[in-house]
Design brief:
The protein is mainly α and 222 residues long. The chain has a domain of 125 residues. 66% of the residues lie in helices and 2% in strands. It is built from eleven helices and two strands. It has a two-stranded antiparallel ribbon with strand order 1-2. A hairpin with a 2-residue loop joins β1 and β2.
Length: 222
C-alpha cells in the first residue's frame, strides 16, 4: 500500500506517454493554427530559392573553382542578351525630345500625332478638300519621323529643310519627299489648287517612309 504522501506525489507527477500517445499529442499540438500561420508561404519559398541560387552562383567555395568560373559565364551571357536586345530593338529613343517637338511643326502649332494627322488628312480628302488634305498629310510625314526619332524638326524648321533631312535617312524616297515639300508650299503659301492626284503622291511617299527602315547612321551623308 502506497503511503498517503507517496500517493499524492505519484498523482502529481507528469505521465510518461507511450509511443502512440506521444505521436497523438504531437499531431494535436501541431494542428494548432499558430503553427500553421508560421509556415512559409509559396512566395517566401520562391524568394528563398532565388536567393539561394544567386548565393550559390557567386559562391567561390564550389568544388574545383567552378564558383568564379560559373559567375563569369553568367555575366557573359547577360552581356550577350543585352547586346542582342539592342541589335533587335535598337537604342531606346529619348522620348523627351520628341515630346518637346509635338507643339510646333513648320512654324505653326501642331499637337496631333502622326496617326491623328493621317486620319484628319483622309477626312479632308473624303470631302474633296485637297489643299488641306495635302498640308495635313505632309505634316503627318514629318511627325511620324519625329516620333520614330530619325529626323528632328526644331522650331523654325521649314518643310524643305525637313525633306532634305528625311531624304538622307530614307534615300529611296528623297526625290518624292522633295516633291511633297513643294506640294505643301504650293497649296499652303502660293494658294495653288490641290488635286486628288497630288494628294495620292503625298500619301504614297508617306506610306513608303512609314514602312521603310532608316539608313544606317554611317551611311547617311552629312
Amino acid at each position: 500500500m502506497i503511503p498517503t504522501i507517496g500517493r499524492h506525489l505519484v498523482e502529481a507527477a507528469p505521465l510518461i506517454p507511450d509511443r502512440d500517445e506521444a505521436r497523438e499529442w504531437a499531431e494535436r499540438e501541431l494542428s494548432d493554427p499558430v503553427y500553421q500561420a508560421a509556415e512559409p508561404t509559396p512566395v517566401d519559398r520562391i524568394a528563398r530559392a532565388v536567393g539561394e541560387f544567386f548565393v550559390n552562383l557567386f559562391n567561390p567555395d564550389l568544388s574545383g573553382g567552378w564558383g568564379p568560373a560559373f559567375a563569369l559565364v553568367a555575366a557573359v551571357v547577360v552581356v550577350i542578351v543585352v547586346v542582342a536586345a539592342f541589335l533587335v530593338w535598337g537604342v531606346p529613343r529619348a522620348s523627351g525630345r520628341a515630346a518637346a517637338r509635338t507643339g510646333e511643326l513648320f512654324g505653326e502649332p501642331e499637337g496631333r500625332s502622326a496617326t491623328e494627322l493621317r486620319r484628319a488628312a483622309e477626312a479632308h480628302a473624303g470631302r474633296g478638300e485637297w489643299e488641306q488634305a495635302i498640308i495635313v498629310r505632309v505634316r503627318a510625314i514629318a511627325r511620324s519621323c519625329v516620333e520614330r526619332g530619325v529626323v528632328d524638326t526644331p522650331p523654325g524648321a521649314t518643310v524643305h529643310a525637313f525633306a532634305r533631312a528625311a531624304g538622307r535617312v530614307f534615300p529611296d524616297s528623297a526625290d518624292e519627299l522633295e516633291r511633297a515639300a513643294t506640294a505643301f508650299d504650293d497649296v499652303r503659301y502660293l494658294r495653288r489648287p490641290g488635286s486628288a492626284e497630288l494628294y495620292r503622291r503625298v500619301s504614297t511617299v508617306d506610306d513608303a517612309v512609314r514602312d521603310a527602315r532608316p539608313a544606317p547612321k554611317d551611311a547617311v551623308p552629312a
